[in-house]
Amino acid sequence: MLGKAIKNEFRNREHTVLVVLALFLAGAIFIRTFNNSEKNESLLIALLVVFVYLGIYISGFVVAFISPIKDFRDRLFKDQGYLTHTLPMNIPTLIGARLIVDLAIMIQLMVAGFIANFLAIKDNDLLDSLIDILKLLKYDTDRGKVIHYFILISILVAVSYLSFIWLFCAAYTVGHSLFNKNKKLISGVAVLIMAFINFCIFKKVLSGYILGEINIESEDALLYLFMGIASVLLLIYVLIVGIVFKKKLNLE
After folding, report:
1. How confident is the model at residue 235 (pLDDT cuts 50, 70, 90)?
2. Count of other CB atoms within 10 angstroms of residue 124
3. Global model pTM greater than 0.90
4. Cβ of 21: how many Cβ atoms within 10 Å?
5. What region does 250 belong to: left with phi over 0, alpha with psi -120 to 50, or beta?
6. How far apart are CA 198 and CA 167, in angstroms?
7. How far apart are alpha carbons 29 and 120 in whole angstroms?
8. For residue 133, what are the CA distances in angstroms to 29, 105, 106, 247?
9. Is the pLDDT of residue 121 over 70?
10. Alpha carbon distances (Å) from 3 to 8, 53, 199, 235
11. d(CA 164, CA 191)
12. What pLDDT does residue 14 have?
């Protein structure tokens, strides 16, 4: 049953992935075209190109962020919710399928982003320039270390991104299932409270590391710690959704 639920999730959400992939590809083609152009010596034009490129990528991430939250609301609370919750599957299967598909889509988008950037950059000038800047700042680094930390930070961003998506889903579930009035207001307050708790946790760990109150031997360990915290928060939000669904479900 889990396999069928995952297949159904992919079928309902694959159009979003295609939209984001199209944006990434458009950005790569745009940068590649500029690199091959004879007009790329102008600093102003170069800055405009960078802003457009960043705008395309930000648009892709905004779509990737809003779409799963909107899909969560539409297929679990709105008119489609009556159909979704009558399917022959239990709540853990339903929630588990969404989480697995969220993870799979995030991996797809990360890989697509790496490929798009690889296609966009003509040579290795960007990576070499970054290494030179780090060396000027007295950081002993090389290409291997830069790539290593880039991968770790990308994984951290992906897990944190998923955690933030499910934070909104959990807040929406609390506001629209446990209360009959002022649902939107309560959901908004729940988002702010959960986000503030997130901020306090990460701020406490980071400040503790900087001040030496938390004994962490390397930057790697700090990144792994943040990954662990983000993963635990993600699990908490998923459990909130599952528990509320099991105890009280209020479809609109």
Report:
1. very high
2. 10
3. no
4. 17
5. beta
6. 10
7. 7
8. 27, 34, 30, 55
9. no
10. 9, 37, 36, 21
11. 10
12. 75
Cα 63 to the center of its chain, rounded Å: 11
| Three-state secondary structure string covering the chain | CHHHHHHHHHHHHHHHHHHHHHHHHHHHHHHHHHHCCCCCCCHHHHHHHHHHHHHHHHHHHHHHHHHHHHHHHHHHCCHHHHHHCCCCCCHHHHHHHHHHHHHHHHHHHHHHHHHHHHHHCCCCHHHHHHHHHHHHCCCCCCHHHHHHHHHHHHHHHHHHHHHHHHHHHHHHHHHHHCCCCCHHHHHHHHHHHHHHHHHHHHHHHHHHHHHCCCCCCCHHHHHHHHHHHHHHHHHHHHHHHHHHHHHCCCCC
Count of C-beta atoms within a 10 Å radius of residue 210: 9
* Closest by CA position to 238, among listed 92, 132, 60, 44: 92
User: Whole-number mean pLDDT of the chain?
Assistant: 76
Phi-psi region of 68 (alpha: psi -120 to 50; beta: other; left: phi over 0): alpha
100 touches 6 (CB < 8 A) = yes
- How would you class 85 by CB atoms within 10 Å of its CB: exposed for 0-12, middle for 13-18, buried for 19 or more? middle
Nearest to residue 163, comparing CAs of 130, 195, 185?
A: 195
